[in-house]
Amino acid sequence: MSIRTAFASFIALPLLAGASCTLWTDDLIDAPRDDGGDGGSSTAEGGSQGSSGGSGGAPPGTCGDAPVPTATTCPDVCTGGCDDGVCRVRCTGEDACKDDDIVCPSSMDCRVLCQAKQACEKVELRCSEFGRCEVTCLGEKSCKEMEIEAREGPVELDCAGDACEKVELRCGSNRCQASCGPMAKKPKVRCGEACSCEACR
Known about the structure:
The protein is an alpha/beta fold. Helix content is 14%, strand content 26%. The protein contains one helix and 13 strands; from the N terminus they run αβββββββββββββ.
């Protein structure tokens, strides 16, 4: 091999190595990354799952938020009256709202109180379209077989004793939470597309 040929080979080798290194680096940057989770929706059955993050319909950073109520009148469904944009539905006598279909006003927050024996048994509750929805179940089987459908607003369900026997909470796209007292019957929570979901432990 001549001195000229050896010198040309010496110059070419680093250049080829550099090109190979550059291609490898570009491939690494463009490769898809595994973030360690699929972030999909989940379901908590009977309170067996404490919390889970669904795929979420609420915009980032707004999970749990709700718009300020704008209603200026108090609809008939608000049997406990209205206060600062909150519709209060009171079912405080035995069988008071049993088998009823309750639809919360879309432009208000909604608080439903079931506080007597079977007061809200087999009630179908449809929460406000965007407002907060809070349901409290107290008393013997007060919310037995109740079905709660959340929508775009956050929803909270509080259960005591056997009040939430066979209750089903179907979450919407916002924050969804069920809380139970000691030894309480646990509702079934379907997380669906909720941005945050927590069932009774």
